[in-house]
Write a structure and sequence with these properties.
By secondary structure, the protein is of the alpha/beta class. The chain folds into 2 domains: 6-69, Helicase, Ruva Protein, domain 3 (Orthogonal Bundle), CATH 1.10.8; 78-279, Rossmann fold (3-Layer(aba) Sandwich). Helices cover 37% and strands 20% of the residues. It has helices spanning 6-17, 24-36, 41-45, 53-67, 72-76, 100-107, 126-134, 147-160, 219-231, 247-256, and strands at 78-81, 84-87, 116-120, 139-144, 165-169, 181-186, 232-241, 260-266, 272-279. Strands 5-4-3-6-7-9-8 form a 7-stranded mixed sheet, with helices on both faces. Strands 1-2 form a two-stranded antiparallel ribbon. The longest helix is centred in the N-terminal third of the chain and has 15 residues, at 53-67. The protein is elongated. The N and C termini lie far apart (68 Å). The chain binds glutamine (GLN). Glutamine binds at residues 96, 98, 187-191, 203, 211. InterPro entries: DNA_methylase_N6_adenine_CS, HemK-like, Methyltranfer_dom, N5-glutamine_MTase, PrmC_N, RF_methyltr_PrmC, SAM-dependent_MTases_sf. It catalyses: L-glutaminyl-[peptide chain release factor] + S-adenosyl-L-methionine = N(5)-methyl-L-glutaminyl-[peptide chain release factor] + S-adenosyl-L-homocysteine + H(+). Belongs to the protein N5-glutamine methyltransferase family. PrmC subfamily. Its EC number is 2.1.1.297.
């Protein structure tokens, strides 16, 4: 195919994406900008500029991958979260804007100046790095059971030059023994095994181990709420993301484990998304 102009390339890709993506135009823009290495305004300033033959080929390959269902983040290799550019891989969940609600609330807590913070199941390192990038005095630890995730999070940390953060391999709390944290956060797996949402869209390309939990999606949340009691300072906070229909059940788990000040927080779409509670051991 002869090289297209930017405008033509965008229009033909967006047209092809309409059948498979709710964000067809945006997908086309993000892929094209990645191929030409420019920022968004370039597309509107130079719509008649022609792609080079190499750019045309690269763009066609990227479009074909998207048409096969692959998430945009996997095709371009990164995703922005909390304005941090994070490398992603099929080893972890792709960070989602919903999880920024958790970061926002963690940052609003009145913690000691040199607070110790733990992010369980850190994946790309998104939550840990966002917190460490905002609060230079916090000592943030991110952990993940999967070695590839720990390496990915460390790669992101190095690229972002964030110093007050470390990543360790741990199956929830297995690598910790006597440490105490002022704040423990997590976006654990919480989707039910037979949720039809799992066979549609981007989630098909993400690891099930990061998405699905037994016991109606609540098994890992229950484990974390239970075990965190040993690792929280008195008055320490536990802040967990969960499904928007799980708020009542999650609050009940916190209550059953004798946490206090239990509170549910809504995400930007107005859905119950995060539950916060304190432990007075
Ligand atoms: N919110 C994500 C989704 O619905 C799931 C994230 C998770 O399980 N922790 O795809």
């Amino acid at each position: 195919m002869p090289s297209q102009t930017l405008e033509q390339a965008l229009a033909s890709a967006a047209n092809a994406f309409f059948a498979c993506s709710d964000t067809a135009k945006l997908d086309a823009q993000v892929l094209l900008l990645d191929v030409i290495g420019q920022s968004r305004s370039y597309l509107f300033t130079w719509p008649d500029k022609a792609l080079t033959a190499q750019q045309q080929t690269q763009f066609e390959q990227a479009v074909a991958r998207r048409l096969a269902g692959e998430p945009i983040a996997h095709i371009i290799g990164y995703r922005e979260f909390w304005s941090l550019k994070l490398k992603v891989s099929p080893a972890t969940l792709i960070p989602r804007p919903d999880t920024e609600t958790l970061v926002e609330h963690a940052l609003s807590l009145a913690l000691p100046e040199h607070a110790k913070v733990l992010d369980l199941g850190t994946g790309t390192g998104a939550i840990a790095l966002a917190l460490a990038s905002e609060q230079f005095n916090w000592q943030v630890t991110g952990c993940d059971r999967i070695e590839d995730a720990v390496v990915l999070a460390q790669t992101n940390q190095a690229a972002l030059e964030i110093k007050n953060c470390r990543f360790v391999q741990s199956n929830w709390f297995s690598a910790f023994s006597t440490e105490q944290f002022d704040l423990i956060v997590s976006n654990p797996p919480y989707i039910e095994q037979d949720d039809p949402h799992l066979s549609q869209g981007d989630v098909r390309f993400e690891p099930l181990s990061a998405l699905v939990a037994p016991d109606n999606g609540l098994a890992d949340i229950r484990t974390i709420v239970n075990q965190a009691r040993t690792f929280l300072t008195s008055g320490g906070y536990l802040l967990l993301e969960h499904g928007y229909q799980q708020a009542e059940q999650v609050s009940a788990i916190f209550l059953q484990m004798a946490y206090k000040d239990i509170r549910t927080i809504k995400d930007l779409a107005g859905n119950d998304r995060v539950t916060l509670a304190r432990w007075y051991g």
